[in-house]
Amino acid sequence: MFALSPTEMSALILSLRASSLAVLWALPFAIGLGWVLGVKRFPGHGLLNAFVHLPLVLPPVVLGYLLLLLLGRKGLIGGPLYELLGLRIAFSEGAVVVACAVVGFPLMVRAIRQSAEAIDPRLARAARSLGASEVRVFITVTLPLMAPGILTGLTLAFARAVGEFGATITLAGNIPGKTQTLPLALFTVTQSPGGDAAALRLCILSLVLAGGALLASEAIARRTNLQEVPT
User: Fold this and answer.
1) Measured distance CA(144)–CA(133) in Å, rounded
2) Predicted TM-score (pTM) of this structure
């Protein structure tokens, strides 16, 4: 009942690998954007913030179609990559990583931005007054103080990436052993006669993974709040 088939195990491994790669690739950009949106004010700030968070409100299939227009063999980015380098992104494992990264990115940025907004600007000013450069201030003062938001964003983005369906199936397809992630495998077995047991297994597995990530995020937030309480 609870033993995974080779296809299901392949889908699980792909989901974990793609989600992990997605959050790691997106992390540097999320830190940069989260910091900029959190501590800077400039013309177009609201527009940039809305653009970054757009994947949260767009239907996933629409997001996947837009990515396909960009990264497909005839897309604005995918076309030159295929013609010049022979690199095909759409309908490959790389497309799964891209889809997971895009849908999880806004959650990561949001958590980091909120953490950056909570930093007392006097700390950075004090470091500058002691002769620290902007880079050193960011690395030694700002980045450590943003660490709780970074960890929370990572876990939330990972949970979102593990459960991604619409953008993945549009950009990467549903190819067993190649692009079929856990949600796609669950969709496949629900469409197959006698797939109830497999569907239940995959459903429970998805709940465990997503729930575990959310519990980890909550634990990080609680630990941070306890450390901020004055003794």
Assistant:
1) 16
2) 0.89
